[in-house]
Design goal:
Order of helices and strands: HEHEHEHEEH
Largest sheet: 5 strands, mixed
Structural class: alpha/beta
Low-confidence stretches: none
Distance between the termini: 49 Å
Helix content: 40-55%
Shape: elongated
Strand content: 15-25%
């Protein structure tokens, strides 16, 4: 009888391990479906985009902006490095003035950080990659 109880206990333990591992695999698969590059977003899809993922960073920029051109490649790099943890978007403020006004973008580049669909933070100016990364990691 003792051996039967030991066997049941082992089977229950194995089942728990299997369930945990299946959840880990499912989470990993979901994260690999996240974009590995910054997505171009617009006024029309902005709300859907920022609410689709737990952590989103939106680069608000314009074509004529020199500092924006320095931040753009940083955002592209971080999108690949942080895939599965953060999703990045790019919003051209000249083309999407409704969203720019809604979030009171008065200087560019501005990075908006959204956690669970809500604005959590903003970074203004051409910050170095390390500073941007540290700020984003504080929300993971």
């Amino acid at each position: 009888m003792k051996y039967l109880n030991d066997a049941r206990g082992s089977m229950d333990e194995l089942e728990e391990i299997r369930k945990r591992r299946m959840e880990e695999i499912k989470t990993d698969l979901e994260k690999t479906n996240w974009p590995a590059e910054a997505m171009i977003i617009s006024d029309a899809d902005f709300e859907d985009f920022v609410s689709r993922y737990p952590l989103v960073v939106v680069d608000c920029w314009a074509e004529w902006c020199g500092p924006c051109k320095r931040v753009g490649p940083i955002i592209d790099s971080l999108a690949g490095q942080m895939q599965g943890d953060v999703v990045f978007g790019k919003l051209d403020t000249d083309q999407n003035q409704v969203t720019a006004r809604k979030f009171q973008i008065t200087a560019i580049p501005t990075l908006l950080v959204f956690k669970n669909g809500q604005l959590a933070d903003r970074m203004v100016g051409a910050l170095p990659q390390v500073s941007i990364q540290e700020k984003i990691k504080s929300y993971l």
